Amino acid sequence: MSKIDLTQYQTLIFDCDGVIFNSNKIKTKAFYDVAKVYGHKPAQILRDYHIQNGGISRYKKFEYLFTNILQKPIETQEVNKLLSNFSREVKKALLICEVAQNIEELRDKTRSSKWMIVSGGDQAELREVFELRGLSGYFDGGIFGSPDDKSEILKYEKYKGNIAGNSLFIGDSMYDYQVSKSIGADFIFLTAWTDFYKWKNYFKGKNIKIFKILPELLSL
């Protein structure tokens, strides 16, 4: 695999779950736990849908629960209750889960680049967790999440000029790769914490860089 010069990028865009935090299993479990009030089978289907659609907003996933799995009209009050339960369970776990090592060293190596988080996680929740874990200061380009979709966030931030020059997206899902292409960003896929189990076949022949975990980028 060829090297990649990180200093060529004016903007580095990071997904959160599976990149900064080892939190994919946390969210997978949370989707099942909050949906099991409808029974084991619907909860299991939602969990599988979540795994197959990593990086997509939780709002869209709970809409899918109603419209496709339960096949009933979306009830706003009920969805909000699910979102609240999900957020409470996830936030508690995010405050103690494993964080990628050597973030400070990587930030120093790319100090001329703007850093930003673009995640499928809830934006308010992300900003609170990053602040409490002492990580907010690294991301001078902002921390963004749902209810806006990743694709919408990226296109808007590029339109505003917040994403400028050469840009690189570091993610762990098929959707991360797809949205990176939508703004012409290069892409790095991280394998260690991903729950996208078919990544080897999907990325075969595609012009991307693949690493295990974030600290490996320090060797570039």
Looking at this protein, list some descriptive labels.
single chain; alpha/beta; Rossmann fold; six-stranded parallel beta sheet; 6 strands; 45% helix; globular
Description:
The chain is of the alpha/beta class and 220 residues long. It has two domains: 6-22 and 99-219, 3-Layer(aba) Sandwich (Rossmann fold), CATH 3.40.50.1000; 25-94. Helix content is 45%, strand content 14%. The protein has a six-stranded parallel beta sheet with strand order 3-2-1-4-5-6. Helix 2 packs across helix 3 (58-70). It is globular and about 50 Å long. The N and C termini lie close together (11 Å). The model has no long low-confidence stretch (mean pLDDT 94).
Task: Describe the secondary-structure layout.
Layout (H helix, E strand, L loop, with lengths): L10 E4 L9 H12 L4 H13 L5 H13 L5 H19 L8 H7 L4 E9 H10 L10 E4 L3 H11 L6 E5 L2 H9 L3 E5 L8 H5 L5 E3 L9
Parallel strand pairs: 1-2, 1-4, 2-3, 4-5, 5-6
Helix pairs in contact: 1-2, 1-4, 2-3, 7-8
Helix content: 40-55%
CATH superfamily of the largest domain: HAD superfamily/HAD-like
Beta-sheet strand percentage? 5-15%
Radius of gyration, in Å, reads 17 Å
Report the CATH topology name of the largest domain. Answer: Rossmann fold
